[in-house]
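A.,

Following up on our hallway conversation. Structure tokens first:
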């Protein structure tokens, strides 16, 4: 990594969210060698009114009480700033002229807070790193005058309902204005390259220190009980959102293999809460678990799965859980997508429910110490350190 830079990060995630996110891990890794200011996602009016008990709203209230935002000094080189403003909810506004007018107001208010805290900390000649925030961060380049705007794509956001009215045109404009675009999958990098030739794939990271089987001394008590009851434990760790995870596929696996336990670790959306999965005696929902607890659950799985729905959102998505599964040495079965092809030598890929069952059977039958070592090596190769090194290689490439 050449030299040290100040880095300002904005995006669609909060530092304080329940489950881990790419941008939080990247910020921690960046702070090992650079001064980093992480800007929390500003609360919008609908969130404030409809979700008053969320962590995001709680932090907003703390920020408002602090006056002009809440600044948390995490360590010597890392600061978290929560704006004390409420932005207008614009995603469902259909008329372009009205959206642009209200979003311009949001961008101005958000920009003023970011400019204030950047000045307070004395950040100069800094890199602005924006994680998929093409609405409220769109004018930050003109407001802050960074030495470089890096736009990061980790998901096909414009395929979601939230961005269906203005996402495509706004993200295209953001990609065009960026000095550098980086993506965590080749699929997303290729998409960005249509609008900006300075678009590169930088891979994905994994906390190989946390997801290390040698450091797991015990599995959770609830998992010990499940393992005593069933011949095989199939598990998934991550958010249970029906937009991404195939409820029908999970029901099929549970119904066809009643002797297997299907363990789902993570928060559920409404469709999952109402699904038939809750009626199966061999399906277990643990709810959300803190990140340090996850390796213990993963260690208890015989096979780890990522039962994605195949759609425009998931086809180019790089699921970070795959590297976490592999780093623990676990046999992995996942939905066959464009982004998953790179794992075909260490992951069993399935396209139908029947293939899923066959792949799980094969994963169990063929498992060996050599294969576990190969999987662990793959997961450890995709570290956050390597991810950030690749980011700076691209920064140097663009500068040269």
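Then the amino acids I'd put at each of the 400 positions:
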């Amino acid at each position: 990594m050449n030299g040290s830079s100040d880095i300002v990060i904005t995006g669609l995630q909060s530092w304080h969210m329940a489950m881990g996110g790419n941008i939080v891990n990247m910020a921690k890794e960046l702070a090992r060698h650079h001064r980093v200011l992480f800007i929390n996602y500003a609360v919008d009016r609908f969130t404030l009114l409809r979700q008053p008990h969320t962590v995001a709203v709680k932090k907003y209230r703390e920020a408002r009480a602090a006056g002009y935002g809440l600044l948390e000094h995490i360590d010597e080189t890392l600061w978290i700033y929560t704006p004390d403003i409420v932005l207008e909810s614009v995603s469902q506004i259909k008329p372009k002229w009205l959206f642009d007018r209200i979003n311009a107001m949001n961008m101005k208010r958000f920009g003023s807070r970011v400019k204030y805290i950047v000045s307070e900390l004395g950040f100069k000649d800094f890199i602005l790193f924006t994680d998929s925030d093409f609405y409220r961060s769109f004018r930050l380049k003109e407001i802050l005058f960074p030495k470089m705007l890096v736009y990061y794509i980790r998901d096909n956001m414009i395929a979601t309902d939230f961005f269906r009215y203005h996402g495509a045109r706004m993200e295209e404009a953001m990609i065009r204005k960026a000095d550098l675009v980086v993506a965590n999958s080749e699929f997303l990098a290729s998409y960005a390259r249509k609008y900006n030739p300075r678009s590169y794939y930088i891979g994905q990271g994994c906390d190989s220190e946390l997801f290390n089987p040698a450091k797991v001394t015990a599995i959770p008590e609830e998992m010990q009980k499940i393992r005593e009851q069933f011949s095989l434990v199939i598990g998934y760790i991550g958010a249970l959102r029906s937009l991404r995870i195939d409820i029908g596929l999970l029901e099929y696996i549970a119904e066809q293999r009643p002797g297997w336990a299907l363990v789902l670790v993570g928060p559920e959306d409404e469709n999952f809460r109402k699904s038939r999965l809750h009626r199966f005696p061999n399906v277990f929902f643990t709810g959300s678990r803190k990140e340090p607890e996850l390796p213990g659950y993963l260690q208890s799985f015989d096979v780890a799965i990522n039962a994605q729905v195949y759609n425009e959102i998931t086809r180019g998505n790089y699921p970070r859980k795959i590297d976490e599964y592999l780093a623990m040495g676990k046999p992995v079965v996942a939905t066959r997508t464009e982004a998953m092809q790179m794992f075909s030598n260490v992951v069993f890929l399935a396209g139908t429910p029947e293939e899923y069952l066959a792949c799980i059977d094969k994963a169990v039958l063929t498992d060996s110490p050599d294969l576990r070592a190969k999987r662990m090596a793959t997961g450890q190769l995709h570290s956050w350190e390597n991810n950030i090194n690749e980011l700076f290689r691209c920064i140097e490439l663009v500068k040269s």
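The first strand starts at residue 6 and ends at 11. Curious whether your intuition agrees with the design.

B.
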